[in-house]
Each structure stands twice: as C-alpha cells, then as structure tokens.
Write a structure and sequence with these properties.
The protein is mainly beta. The protein contains 5 helices and 16 strands. Strand 13 and strand 14 form a beta hairpin. Helix 2 crosses helix 3. The protein is elongated. The N terminus is likely disordered.
C-alpha cells in the first residue's frame, strides 16, 4: 500500500536522513501540499538543501507530467500513516534468545553409492543340435518272406555362430557333421559300411538392402569323413576330398518368417556363382564328371545358384527341416533336396525320417532313374539342442 511508505501530514518534516527524506523519490508519485507551499513561500520553511532540491524536483514533475501522479496527500491521510511507535524509535533492536548449546543438525540420509555396469552389446548368437539315432531289423531264418538282420546307427552334430548387429551387417556360420554305419550279414567283404557321411560348412556375409533382403556373399564347402563302399564290393566309391565341392555365390538373401514365425529360415539367390569340384582319388574322377589329366583333379563351372534352409514347426511335437541346393552352369545341372521330419517322443527321445532326392547330370547314368539319386532312412534315438 502507498500509505505504508508515506509519512502523515502531521509528521511531514523532512529534515535529516534518519527520518527518511529520500523516500518520496522512490515511493509512488504523490502530490504533497508542502512541496507547493515551499515553492510559493517567500522564505523557505526548510533550510535543508537536500529537502529543497527534492521539493524542486517534485514540483518540476507536477508541472511537466501531472499524468504520472498516482495519489494526493489528502488521499494518503485518509488511508492512515506509519506506526508512530516505529517512527519515534531511532533504533530497532532485535530480541535474540541465547542458548548454551545449539541443537545438533538432524542426520540426513546419505546416498548409497550405486555401481553402474555398462556391458558391451553381444551381437553373436550360438546354437547347436545333436542326435544319435539307432535302427535295427531282425528276421528269423525261417521267415516266410525272407530277409536278413541288420543294425545301423547315425550321429549328427550341427553348430551355428551367427552375427547380427541389428543395423546393417550379418554373418552366418553353420557347420554340419553326420556319420553313420550299418551292418549286413549278407556282406561278406565289409563288416561295417557308412550309410551317412557328411562334413559341410555354410557361411554368408550380408549387407541389408531392405527390410528382409540382404546383399550376400555365400560360401558352401562340403566333403565326407571316410570311404564309401557297396555290399560285397571292395571298390571305393567315395572318400575324404573325393569329391570336395566349393561354391561361391554373389546375390541376394531373403529372411523367411511366415505363418506366425512357424516357418523360418533363409532363401539365397546368386545369379553369379562359381562351383569348384576337386577329386583327390584319380580312379573316382570320372564318376563325378572330372576329366583327369596330369595337372588337375578338378572341375570349375560358372553359373547361377539357389539355396534355401527352412525349418517348419508343424506342431508342438513335429518339425520339418528342409534344405535345397541348386546349381546350373547352363550345360550342367546339380540339384539336392534334403528333408528331415523329426517327431519328438519326449524331451530327449526323437524319431527321424530322412528323405533325400538328388539330381546330378555329371554323375554316371542309371538305366532305371537316369541322373536321379535317392536316399532314405528312419531312426529312433537321443537328441539334444542347446
């Protein structure tokens, strides 16, 4: 309020500084009667030069800018003056209560140090799958349809190490190893023969082009562990590095996630591909389309390539794994289609059905099925994934 800072008319004596003679310059502009009276008086009632200068400044404002005046002295008197008990006292003393000892500051809870651990993101994912399957067939000597006893076992181990930085790059690595043996009483030459033999590596480096499409360089290399025989025949039909196949393809890779992610995998299309086949054993070169000479045991073809690796979870207990490989040099065609149906009996027991049709016009011609080849077996055994 304006009245809080102004002196009443009865106390409007503007003498020394202790009575607040400067307050009129900083309080809201007020029209004081004493200012006009002093200016019109022949003899000044206030010999103080400071007060006279202030009166002259206020009078100048009254005459030049009367619109700035907010209140008059009469209006101030109606609203009341300052408290007389404060005006009369030249010194205001603060009463302070002294105590012998200050109360201690309350204990503030201290902040516990928090250890922040920032881990480097791991873009690698690893998984493995292994199984050991057995097959057995017993026929008595007097069985009316004939036949013979045989036993077989096949083991498989597949490991994957895949890199994906969730931005642009991915690098997939897959190593497959299978080896199986069988016995047959009618085979008097071999006690054991292989019925499954595979050592295969698949590697892909991809740069993302779109949502599920990647520019990809793919490398596929495979051979087998040991020699392959036929019943009652001492001839070796295949061996380690006989043959050895190496395919390199440049193209596009598509990531499959269909049917609510029940069907997953990848499809790779490489319009630019090179296929290299090496046969270490000279006597087997012709069986795999290699024209042997003194300088080379190999065959190199340029063409296009298609590969696919898919897994379809048909239901909770049945899974279908399929692999497709096709290469053509436009004068030679090679096609493989591996199918594994796995029926999960319990957590560690599975039954497998394996179907493998294959076409290769670089191999020997068969009078019944031509260049087609076929392999099939069923088994029951242990399996474990991690």
């Amino acid at each position: 309020m304006v009245a809080t800072f102004a002196l009443s008319a009865s106390a409007a004596q503007y003498g020394n500084l202790s009575k607040g003679q400067y307050f009129r310059l900083f309080a809201p502009l007020t029209f004081y009667h004493s200012v006009a009276g002093n200016q019109l008086s022949i003899a000044s009632s206030d010999p103080d030069e400071v007060s006279q200068a202030i009166d002259q400044a206020l009078m100048h404002v009254y005459l030049k800018r009367p619109d700035l005046i907010q209140v008059t002295q009469t209006e101030q008197e109606k609203s009341g003056g300052l408290r007389q008990d404060i005006i009369e006292k030249s010194v205001v003393k603060q009463e302070v209560e002294m105590v012998e000892q200050a109360e201690p500051m309350p204990d503030m809870p201290s902040a516990e140090p928090v250890e922040v651990v920032i881990e480097k993101p791991n873009f690698w994912k690893y998984k493995a799958d292994t199984y050991l399957q057995f097959m057995q067939n017993y026929v008595s000597d007097n069985w009316y349809k004939g036949g013979e006893n045989n036993y077989a076992a096949v083991g498989s181990f597949t490991v994957e190490a895949n890199y994906d930085n969730k931005s642009k790059w991915k690098w997939d690595n897959k190593l497959e190893m299978k080896l199986g043996f069988q016995t047959s009483p009618s085979d008097t030459v071999h006690r054991l023969k292989t019925n499954e033999d595979l050592l295969r590596y698949t590697g892909k480096v991809g740069l993302q082009a779109a949502n599920r499409w990647y520019y990809t360089l793919q490398l596929l290399a495979y051979t087998q562990f040991t020699r392959g025989f036929k019943a009652n025949n001492e001839k070796v039909f295949s061996d380690f590095m006989s043959p050895f196949n190496l395919s390199v393809g440049l193209g596009m890779d598509y990531k499959v996630e269909w049917f609510n992610k029940k069907l997953t995998g990848t499809v790779n299309m490489s319009p630019l591909a090179v296929n290299y086949r090496y046969v270490d054993r000279a006597d087997l070169a012709g069986s795999f389309g290699v024209k042997l000479d003194r300088h080379t045991h190999s065959l190199t073809d340029f063409g296009s390539q298609l590969t696919a690796s898919l897994t379809w979870q048909l239901n909770e207990n049945v899974q279908w794994k399929s692999r497709i490989y096709s290469f053509t040099s436009y004068h030679r065609q090679e096609f493989e289609w591996e199918n594994t149906f796995a029926l999960r009996v319990s957590k560690y027991i599975t039954a497998n059905l394996f179907l493998f049709p294959r076409f290769d016009d670089a191999s020997n011609w068969d009078d019944n099925i031509g260049y087609w080849q076929f392999k099939e077996y069923s088994s029951l055994g242990f399996s474990y994934s991690f």
